[in-house]
Specification:
Chain B: This is Molecular chaperone MKKS. The structure holds two protein chains of two kinds. Helices cover about 50% and strands about 15% of the residues of chain A. By secondary structure, chain A is of the alpha+beta class. In chain A, helix 17 (about 425-430) links the parallel strand 11 (about 415-420) and strand 12. The two termini of chain B are about 20 Å apart. The chains are: A alpha+beta, B alpha+beta.
């Protein structure tokens, strides 16, 4: 067993955390910049735009990195949103804590003051929560405004239609001097590559293997008509003259336009009567426009259904996604039922099924001869002897195939949905007999079909009896919004539905392969935001309001702690081992807690290009804080500024006085939990003073160049 | 071709303790453990160095179970601490630190080890007599009719491990839950042989700690049963649900003989015959009006289908750990064969429900008489959850030990310092006949006693991890903490607020002295007084039984190690 001291003053674990988190700075806020992650050994690269994917593709052999990964995965599993915030704050707070250590603040003081401070902030920001009902009302009262931009926005493109704020920015940028944009993005790039250098050097400094996977700089991706990336919007405008992009751009635009109009003539005609979730979806989308349209459509579908039954407004469990590569992004849509990809051979079977009600079978395992249910251990010492061999009986595999087929035919099954994989030979035989077998179907989908067709899932075909087979399923080729069936070459999208099935498939499309994952991730993030907002039954005022209030609250706490009258008050708290020294350092530690949110705000503003530099953004945050303090009631000031929509905007320039109503809301639990998880991780690593490496690594470590860092027991 | 190798002779190491490597390893281990101790203790990251799970902990049980040490002396030490922990759960670090410290202090004495051992045994008996006497100043009796002391006990266990990442509100919530869970396990009708029930911890990772809750009865996770529809359960005539509990696998695989092969004719399927046997069992279960079948292992899908068609709920993969509480709760005997079914094995339940928690679905078995309960334990991430689970188990165990012996010791270092000042006082007032009995001189006795007291005090000092001073007062002998950053000449009474356990405030003029750095001067002090008021709201308390055992184990292990004169290592 080896033992390594984590140097107290320059805590290695915290440094690791902060350098890992640096890579995620540009993923913060509504304007994210994508990153290419290049694996140097295989030269494979992935395009990522979320903290989860970033962490997944980084090399995390160090213990702190592993804990960071665990924390981000936990947030992802629980909320599906807030991971970038978490990652950023882990970095910011690690740095802040390192600074406290430099100033000789005892660890126990940092731990107790920081966690108390966060608790206090979480209580304070409750006044910025509003109920979903109020949020909807507020949103609806300003819903007609975007119409004003309809005419002017045509030349820019579709994205700005749904987000007038972005449109305004784009226009401003274009009207500004041409040099401004390249210079800006250039120094931005430089900054990021610097970051990466630092990340690499600091990692290799710890003796970690940093060479395996390396985030190879960050690239703007002009060829992707990215939603939300400002520079790419600008680039797209230039590229409309290219023969490759013009047609795409136009169809893209027109379909959006159509959709946009539809949405305005639809449920939102009378803003006062709109209690649907359309506007909430938009306010929670944070600049993710592709998903807005899809989610609004899902909400509409589910509400329609809810009028018949008494289910909730938005049920995320009834949504599945299907990714179609090769179709333009404007083809993304919602299809009732289950859309999936099948081979062209399977698709030929479908032609026989058109408009027929099918008998459906659900299987919760694999459909292969070798498959046995989980927990079945195959006997190894059984020998089968054949006494009278005859050539007629054929091979054992054929016997199984024909028996299975016989069963399927005898129960007149037309459609089989299988959770696992399907034996290829059986698949062929089934196609020949006009039975459609689809593998890799998730449990939720099976469950949904089971509910409406009264099919009961089985594990083996031999289990089958008449009551297991459901009926009423329909299969057809999936048709795009223009009514055409789509053939994507190797795979054909098909749609399976049944009368009354609540299942909705979000069909996600793109022509750029590397973007597929990203689009799917973004869709789910938006879906989870809506899901959690409705679950919490409340939302936070967004756009930095919450963070700003935290900052002003901490400033007040810090001021209070300096007043002598309060110095003794804290001593009442019980545990002398934890709190004795805390009072002395309270102000310093609170400042470092605040610095996390301050950096958060300034980086978001910088990423959104609301400020030319992080420093400028910082000044603007300070400006707001000063005003809030002058106002007397910080929460009232922030509320007012939020209503005006001027939070997180540059303090000067045309935007500041353009009182634009674009409300942004945040999730309550996801946000505060992300804060808590980030702080917990930082404090957990802070309190760690040693790594104990167990297992067979001992000899390797003994011989390695870092062996002097270790002590061996 | 096999090669024969001559046996190597065993390696003899004489006076193992005098070797440098041993003392280095011992002091390294002692350093690791001391740095873990207490609510402000530092955490250790245990991992294999190649990625994967990282255990962040400051618990002796977690560290020792993963630690592999090379030297036999360390192994002796770890084995006896682990043995103590397996019996008492609590006070593992205390035991280990005290043991290391005793070895260190006694070794530097230059007195024959047999004399040291004799004297230290006498000292231990003095301690134990004092702790068991009514006059003991560091002891509290626990009143089970009020919650406050019990809550203090649980809270102290919870706050002693910082890797759980709990804030004050979460500590309070969990302390209440743990106490509630414990109350469920106390049988309401006590006969001559009262047996405590069991609290099962159900993991729900990723949720907030305050989402944790306690339910009477048992929860078994069932991913297949979705909560959409309420369960309809077949009930027997007395409106009870009959349950059959299987501990044998019902997955339809063959019994696996260790050796030899089975030869079967082509066309005969052993699998089919096994399945038929299972279906026969199913038929009998249906005939016997069973409403619920629980299997420790896997149930064959065909049997499940058959049972479902006959309205019998089948739950499989319950796991070994649930079997004992299940059988205790339902009165059923686990059935170990699918060939013999005796109706006397069946048990009964009051109700079966479906509960969903986070994204998990559970079958909730509710018994008539609850002595078994489920603590649904949540924490935000894996490493903190694991630590919290160990802590909750410890707290539960501490309560069980306390109900047997309703006493608690003052925590926060106060018991250690008070015991030390009691021994210092007592060792001065021993008569010559005592020394004759032990066969030592007064000086020898005083030296060993001083080493013993310094060892106890060094445990109290280990609670401090930031710079600062540890004091003890000369009236009560309690332990006090002064934060860093003050010159040591300043008046102590301005700086201290409360003693470690929280029972004494800085109200009267107690004369303080530093715990460390007073080795030269003899300390003359009276017998420590008992604090006047023994009830306070937020006390730090330790488990009486665990600490007493820890003290004994530490001393006996230290004596054993001091007594080692040879290590014989088999080198083959």
């Amino acid at each position: 067993m080896a033992f390594r001291d984590v140097n107290a003053r320059r805590h290695i674990g915290l440094q690791q955390l902060s350098s890992l988190a640096l890579a995620g700075r540009t993923l913060l806020g509504p304007m994210k910049s994508c990153k290419f992650i290049v694996d140097e050994s295989t030269k494979q690269s992935t395009l990522i735009c979320s903290a989860v994917r970033l962490i997944e593709s980084l090399d995390l052999t160090c213990a702190a990195g592993q804990l960071l990964n665990e924390t981000i995965q936990a947030q992802n599993k629980e909320f599906g949103t807030g991971m970038s915030t978490l990652l950023f704050l882990v970095g910011a707070w690690s740095n802040a804590v390192l600074e406290c250590l430099q100033q000789n603040v005892p660890v126990s003081a940092i731990v107790s003051v920081m966690s108390e401070g966060l608790n206090s902030c979480c209580e304070r920001v409750q006044c910025l929560q509003i109920s979903i009902h109020d949020a909807n009302k507020e949103l609806c009262s300003c819903s007609v405004r975007p119409n004003a931009f309809k005419n002017t926005s045509c030349q820019i493109g579709c994205d700005s239609l749904l987000n007038p704020e972005i449109f305004l920015y784009v226009q401003k940028d274009i009207s500004a001097s041409e040099e401004a944009i390249p210079r800006n993005s250039c120094c931005h790039q430089e900054g990021v590559s610097n970051c990466n250098k630092r990340l690499l050097s600091s990692l290799s400094g710890f003796g970690e293997i940093a060479s395996l996977v390396k985030p190879a700089g960050e690239k703007r991706t002009p060829k992707i008509s990215g939603s939300g990336v400002i520079t790419s919007s600008c680039n797209k405008k230039k590229l409309t003259h290219s023969r490759y992009f013009s047609t795409l751009g136009k169809s893209h635009f027109s379909s959006w336009q159509g959709n946009f109009q539809g949405y305005h003539s639809g449920p939102a005609v009378d803003p006062c009567e709109c209690y649907g979730l359309e506007h909430l979806v938009m306010a929670l989308s944070h600049g993710n426009h592709t998903s807005v349209k899809l989610l609004q459509s899902i909400v509409a579908h589910q509400q329609e259904k809810a009028e018949c039954s008494s289910s909730s407004q938005f049920n995320i469990a009834e949504i599945v996604t299907c990714c179609l590569l090769g179709l333009p992004e404007s083809y993304a849509c919602i299809s009732p039922g289950f859309v999936t990809l099948v081979s062209p051979e399977q698709a030929t079977v479908i032609k026989h099924f058109e408009d027929k009600l099918l008998r459906i079978l659900l299987m919760d395992g694999d459909l292969t001869e070798q498959y046995r249910h989980l927990g079945f251990s195959r006997p190894r010492n059984v020998r089968t002897i054949l006494e009278h061999p005859s050539l007629l009986e054929g091979r054992a595999g054929d016997l199984w195939l024909s028996r299975m087929l016989e069963i399927l035919i005898s129960f007149e099954v037309n459609l089989v949905l299988v959770k696992g994989s399907v034996c290829e030979n059986l698949m062929e035989r089934c196609i020949a007999n006009s039975i459609l077998v689809i593998g890799s179907v998730t449990r939720d989908v099976l469950h949904a079909f089971g509910e409406v067709t009264s099919a009961q899932s089985v594990t083996y075909l031999t289990q089958l009896n008449a009551s297991c087979v459901g009926s009423g399923a329909q299969v057809g080729l999936w048709k795009a919004c223009d009514g055409r069936a789509v053939d994507l070459g190797e795979l054909v999208p098909v749609r399976i539905k049944a009368q009354g099935i609540p299942l909705l498939t979000a069909v996600l499309t793109t022509t750029v392969a590397s973007k597929m994952q990203l689009i799917e991730d973004q869709f789910w993030t938006s879906a989870y935001r809506l899901h959690h907002a409705l679950n919490d039954e409340k939302v936070f005022l967004g756009g930095g309001a919450v963070e700003l209030l935290c900052l002003s609250h901490i400033r007040m706490l810090a001021e209070k702690s300096l007043q002598p009258a309060n110095k003794n008050a804290v001593k009442e708290i019980h545990n002398p081992w934890l709190t004795a020294s805390a009072t002395e350092y309270k102000s310093v530690v609170l400042q470092s807690l605040a610095s996390g949110w301050k950096q958060y705000l300034s980086v978001v503003m910088y990423n959104m290009a609301k400020a030319a530099s992080e420093l400028e953004a910082c000044t603007s945050v300070d400006h707001h804080l000063k005003k809030a303090a002058e106002c007397g009631s910080p929460s009232a000031y922030i509320l007012k500024e939020f209503r005006r929509g001027s939070l997180l905007r540059g303090s000067s320039g045309p935007l500041a006085d353009h009182g634009e109503d674009l409300k942004v809301y945040d999730n309550v639990a996801a946000k505060t939990e992300a804060w808590r998880r980030a702080l917990d991780l930082v404090l957990l690593v802070l309190q760690t003073d040693a790594e104990i490496i167990t297992g067979p690594q001992r000899n390797q470590l003994l011989n390695s160049h870092v062996s002097s860092e270790f002590m061996f027991l | 071709m096999s090669r024969l190798e001559a046996k190597k002779p065993p390696l003899f190491i004489s006076e193992p303790l005098t070797k440098d490597t041993v003392s280095q390893s011992l002091s390294l281990l002692s350093g690791i453990l001391k740095s873990c101790y207490g609510p402000a203790g530092r955490l250790k990251q245990l991992h294999n160095g190649v990625g994967g799970y990282v255990c962040t902990t400051s618990q002796s049980s977690a560290i020792f179970s993963r630690l592999s040490v090379s030297h036999p002396i360390l192994r002796v030490l770890m084995a006896s601490v682990q043995n103590h922990v397996s019996r008492f759960s609590d006070c593992g670090l205390f035991t280990a630190i005290l043991c290391c410290s005793l070895i260190e202090n006694f070794r530097s004495l230059n007195i024959a080890s047999c004399t040291v051992i004799k004297i230290s045994k006498h000292l231990l008996s003095l301690c134990m007599d004092y702790l068991k006497s009514e006059a003991c100043g560091c002891r509290l009796s626990v009143d089970f009719s009020s919650l406050e002391t019990l809550l203090c006990l649980v809270r102290s266990v919870l706050t002693s491990k910082p890797a759980c990442m709990l804030n004050k509100q979460e500590v309070d919530h969990l302390a209440t839950l743990i106490l509630k869970a414990f109350m469920f396990t106390v049988p309401s009708h006590v006969e001559t042989n009262a047996v405590l029930g069991k609290c099962i911890i159900v993991p729900v990772k990723g949720k907030r700690v305050v989402d944790s809750t306690v339910l009477p009865g048992l929860l078994i996770e069932t991913p297949e049963i979705q909560s959409a529809k309420p369960l309809t359960v077949k009930r027997s005539c007395s409106n009870m649900i009959k349950i059959a509990l299987f501990c044998v696998s019902m997955s339809g695989d063959l019994f696996s003989p260790e050796e030899g092969t089975i030869t079967v004719h082509h066309g005969i399927s052993l699998e089919m015959s096994e399945l038929n046997q299972l279906l026969n069992v199913g038929k009998q279960l249906v005939n016997d009006e069973i409403g619920l079948v629980v299997c420790q292992k896997v149930i064959h899908p065909s049997l499940k289908q058959y049972l479902k068609e006959n309205h019998v709920i089948a739950v499989d993969r319950a796991g070994l750990s649930l079997m004992e509480p299940l059988s205790q709760m339902t009165g059923s005997k686990p059935i170990a064969s699918i060939h013999l079914l005796s109706p006397s094995c069946y048990g009964s339940l009051k109700d079966v429900r479906v509960e969903s928690f986070a994204s998990k679905h559970f079958v909730h078995l509710i018994p008539n008489d609850t002595v078994v309960c489920s603590l649904i334990l949540c924490n935000r991430n894996e490493t903190a959850w694991d630590e919290l689970k160990r802590v909750c188990e410890t707290a539960e165990h501490v309560l069980q030990l306390t109900i047997k012996e309703p006493l608690a010791l003052l925590g926060g270092g106060c018991t250690e310092t008070q015991l030390a000042s009691y021994i210092r006082h007592k060792s001065c007032s021993l008569s010559t006949s005592n020394f004759k009995d032990i066969d030592c001189s007064r000086t020898q006795y005083q030296l060993v006693a001083d080493g013993f007291c310094r060892s106890l005090e060094s445990v109290a000092c280990s609670l401090n991890h930031d710079d600062g001073e540890i004091l003890t007062d000369l009236v009560y002998g309690h332990c006090w903490f002064v934060p860093s950053g003050f010159p040591s000449v300043s008046n102590w009474s301005d700086l201290v607020s409360k003693c470690g356990c929280g029972i004494n405030g800085n109200a009267e003029n107690l004369s303080w002295r530093l715990l460390q750095g007073q080795f030269g001067s003899p300390v003359i002090q009276g017998c420590p007084k008992e604090p006047s008021v023994k009830v306070a709201d937020f006390l730090t308390l330790d488990c009486f039984a665990a600490k007493c055992s820890g003290l004994q184990v530490a001393l006996e292990t230290a004596n054993l190690i001091l007594d080692l004169s040879y290590v014989i290592e088999d080198q083959n």
